[in-house]
Design brief:
By secondary structure, the chain is of the alpha/beta class. It has eleven helices and 17 strands.
């Protein structure tokens, strides 16, 4: 039978989140029931709860940075046991049959993956995310959180961590490579930590120097203010890879000028508005303008193991559930260092 659990939900677009109850499905043969301990707040939660990315499903329980402990398992589960530390990221299912799924790229499922929230599952039922007490997830879309990472600091790794790790790995960030991270926020701070741990020379490009001290402590070698026009002159042709983590539209032509020949500018932040581009900015220098989503389940596990090996976790501010609406406003004001995490015991 299904289980009733407490959660925080947006009842309609742009409405404040409020405490409510939701139904979690019965634990099936290959399911795990997770007692959620911590849930990160991602900027994409705000985009979706306020319909910034288009029409959404309400009531909406956001949250795709989920860390918890297995409470029960289905009879066919082989990967996990009761008491295991586990996580759930941005998706909870996919077709599992297309060439991308078979290649471990479930995030790019050709039939569309099933989002952890604001989506419909295979039975046509809405999915509800991590701002809740418990969740039931197929073991195939659940990952193990190593002992070397605290659960509260691990929660944001399920989105912010993998969203930056995946493109850094794909574009070969490492020794001998110069990587720039645009923005030092929830995504950007993990991009800096991971790029540094991978062995790259890391530069932060931020609007101001306000967070310079933090950036250098996190592993950046250099820090520049993009509000200073001299930055773009000084750094012209400098980088092998630029990872943009901001959700505001940028002057792409200016940023593309910072790439070396064959360099790549990769977007993981997703502005709500279209952006303009002069194609000569990519033609000159055979440059790449690209985007990247999260990683697949296998790569997400790889990322978590990498973070444990290198002692990496997110920089967090732990909050109560009744502070979620305040936290949303602070995220929009860039007033968080660097990821809000909800203590779900307070729901």
């Amino acid at each position: 039978m299904s289980t009733t659990v407490a959660a925080y939900a947006a009842p309609s677009a742009k409405a404040p989140l409020e405490r409510t109850t939701i139904e979690r499905r019965e634990v099936g043969e290959f399911d795990v029931l997770i007692d959620i301990k911590f849930a990160g707040i991602c900027h994409s939660d705000i985009h979706q709860a306020r319909e910034g990315w288009g029409e959404a499903i309400f009531p909406m329980v956001p949250g795709h940075e989920i860390a918890g402990v297995v409470e029960a398992v289905g009879s066919g589960v082989t990967k996990f046991a009761v008491g295991d530390r586990v996580g759930v990221g941005c998706m909870v299912d996919s077709c599992r049959e297309c060439e991308n799924c078979e290649a471990g790229l479930e995030q790019y499922c050709l039939k569309g993956n099933v989002g952890t929230y604001n989506a419909l599952d295979k039975n046509g039922e809405p999915t509800y995310g991590g701002y809740s007490e418990k969740i039931v997830v197929d073991e195939a879309f659940t990952v193990r959180i190593p002992e070397g990472v605290a659960l509260d600091e691990a929660a944001p790794l399920l989105c912010a961590g993998i969203t930056t790790y995946s493109p850094l790995k794909h574009w070969n960030a490492g020794p001998g490579k110069k990587v720039a991270v645009v923005g030092l926020g929830g995504l950007g701070h993990m991009g800096v930590k991971l790029a540094h741990a991978l062995g790259a020379e890391v530069t932060v490009l931020s609007q101001s120097l306000r967070k310079q001290e933090d950036g250098l402590k996190l592993g950046a070698d250099h820090y520049y203010a993009t509000s200073d026009p001299a930055t773009f002159e000084k750094l012209r042709g400098s980088f092998d890879l630029i990872l943009s983590t901001v959700s505001a539209p940028l002057n792409l032509d200016a940023y593309l000028s910072l790439l070396k020949t064959d360099g790549a500018f990769v977007n993981v932040g997703a502005p709500e508005e279209p952006v303009a581009l002069n194609l000569f900015s990519v033609i000159a220098g055979r440059k790449t303008l690209a985007g990247s989503g999260i990683g697949g389940i296998r790569e997400t596990q790889e990322m978590l193991d990498f973070c444990a090996e290198h002692g990496l976790g997110a920089e967090i501010e732990l909050i109560r559930a009744d502070q979620i609406n305040e936290a949303y406003e602070r995220v929009l004001a860039s007033d968080v260092r660097y990821r809000f995490v909800i203590d779900t015991a307070t729901i």
